[in-house]
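Lab manual, section 2.4: Encoding a predicted structure.

Procedure: take the sequence of the chain (249 residues), apply the prediction step described in section 2.3, and record the output as C-alpha cells. A sample record is shown.
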Amino acid sequence: MTGSGREFMERTKYKHLGESDQDRGVPQPPLQRPVPEDAVLIELPQLEHIKVKPVDLRTAMESRRTLRTYGQKALKLEELAFLLWCTQGVQRVTDRPVTLRPVPSAGARHALETYLLANNVEGLEPGLYRYVALGHKLLALRLGKHFGRAVVEAAGGQEFLGKSAATFIWCADVYRMTWRYGDRGYRYIHLDAGHVCQNLYLSAAAVECGVCAVAAFDDDQLNELLGLDGDSMFAVYLAAVGKTAAGRG
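Recorded output:
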C-alpha cells in the first residue's frame, strides 16, 4: 500500500485510537437524521401485509447475479417497501437505545441512511427520496424525472442507474459511528455498506428483481445532488434495482 490509503489504514489501527466521545460520556447522536416538522411522509406497506414469493437461501445464493439490464415492468410500492425493510428496516429499538435491524452493524450503530432514486415505482413520482427507517416511511426530497439523469452523470455515465426501477444510495451519517469508535468508525461504515447491499441482492430475488452495486461515482457531484456536505455526511455506495428482463436470470 502507498499514499493516502496506507496512511488511513495505519492511523485507524487500534493502537492509535484515543478516547471516543462515548468514552467521555458525551450523549449519543440521534438514531436517524431528523425529519422536518412540515415534511409530508409517504406511508409504506407494513412488512406483515407484504406478500412475496418464498425463496430459500440456497436458491438465492446460487442464482445471485449482478444485473444491469432491466425489464419495463414497474416495481410495486409494496415490493420497494420490502427491499427497504430488508436492507435498513428497524426490527426494534432497545433500551440503550440502539436499533436492531435485518443487517449487522458495528456496535449496532447503523450509521447509514438510505436515499432513493425512484424511476419506475408504482405510486411514486420520479425523483429523490429518503427512507425514514423509524416509522418505515418515505420522505420526498426533490421530485422530477431529470434527477435520474443527474445520478447517471454523477456516476460517470452509467446509464442503467437511470433505467432501473429504483436506485438505492446509502449515505453515511459519520458521527453516529465515530461517536463510539473514533476514526476507526470510517472503516466500519464501509463494511456496513457491504452488509446492507448484500441483503438487497438476496431480498431482490423474492420480488423478481436484479441488482447492480456501484462504487464508481464523483463524490462531490453526488453529495451536492443529495444535499450532503461531504464531511459529516456523504454518499458511500449505490445499487440499481429493476425487474428481471425476459430471458435473463
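Check your result against the sample. The mean pLDDT is 95.
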